Amino acid sequence: MEYIYAALLLHKLGKEVNEANLKKVISASGIEPDDSKVKSLVASLKGVDITKELENAALVSAAPAAGSGAKEEKKEEKPKEEPKAAAAEGLSALFG
Predict the structure, then answer these.
(1) CA-CA distance, 86 to 18, in Å (whole number)?
(2) Which helix (H) or strand (E) holds 62?
(3) Are residues 28 and 9 in contact, defined by beta-carbon separation less than 8 angstroms?
(4) How far apart are CA 50 and CA 46, in angstroms?
């Protein structure tokens, strides 16, 4: 995970996400960088627009939260109406 954080930090600072820069950031955090992980991450990010991917990730994570709020409001409305109807039926049974 620290390798991804290092890549995000480099991107945020406007630096190129390459092997040398990743190794510097990871070393600065007190971890001995693993060359194979660094190479794999750099190869995976080649041609990827990190800014666009971060925007898409933010939209995806925000969408379910907005949808669930509307459902909760609907659920709260129904129980408020049902107890009144049940109470009215109970009273009519007593006084028939």
Answers:
(1) 68
(2) helix 50-95
(3) no
(4) 10
Task: Report CA-CA distances (Å) from 71 to 49, 58, 84.
Answer: 35, 21, 22
Q: Which amino acid type is present at position 48?
A: V
Structure tokens at 92: 């009519």
d(C-alpha 59, C-alpha 41), whole Å:
24
Beta strands (DSSP E) in 41-95 are none
Would you tell me how many other CB atoms lie within 10 Å of the CB of residue 18?
A: 14
What's the pLDDT tens digit per position in 1-50? Answer: 899 999 999 999 999 999 999 999 999 999 999 999 999 999 999 999 99
pTM: 0.59
**Which amino acid, one-letter code, is at 88?**
A
> 């009273």: which residue's tokens?
91
Contacts (Cβ under 8 Å, ≥6 apart) of 8: 50
